[in-house]
């Protein structure tokens, strides 16, 4: 029997639920950045974003983005890499990541973003290509190893700042946003593996059927998720401008 393609497994068109999930992750990111900007403006105590609850919230949001990038990678390329689409997406992510690095370096060179969430998504997706043809359970096992390794290993040989992005050094330079390859690539690999298992179980056609009655609601709710990169790049300058303006008025 011919194996089903990703298109037939996922159903025609976009998965509205995936767009909504991206939108929820995006909302979480905006909430955390608003907290950070309020603290930066002196409108709330400066230590609030570094408190344990907020730090955990930020990690969950970052992990959600990386997991969903693994989901999208399998749905788009699981039965064959569409190289023009993949290269274009990675290129856009790389340019956006470089813009974030340059902008934050100009603002705060001692804490600039040298390997943030966009960098992590781009590099993790490149790494995950090697797992598209490997068994899902093996990919999950590797994901567990990627997550655990930084807790077990710290290599002085990787202490040069140019290598901090790997995540296995004994220290790393401060950054506003830091998601190194180890352990964060684990989330992308886990998303890839879980989506592959869901495809084998025939989840996507059933999900498409469940979406149909609520399509008129899910489609507008998924709008932020369909424009997540643009919103990511725009929202923080807006939040900074608004919070700083409020701080000056008060």
TrEMBL record:
It comes from the Bacteria. Residues 14-237 form the Heparan-alpha-glucosaminide N-acetyltransferase catalytic domain. Keywords: Membrane, Transmembrane, Transmembrane helix. InterPro entries: HGSNAT_cat. The chain crosses the membrane at residues 20-44, 56-75, 87-106, 112-132, 137-158, 181-204. This is Heparan-alpha-glucosaminide N-acetyltransferase catalytic domain-containing protein. It comes from Salipiger mucosus DSM 16094.
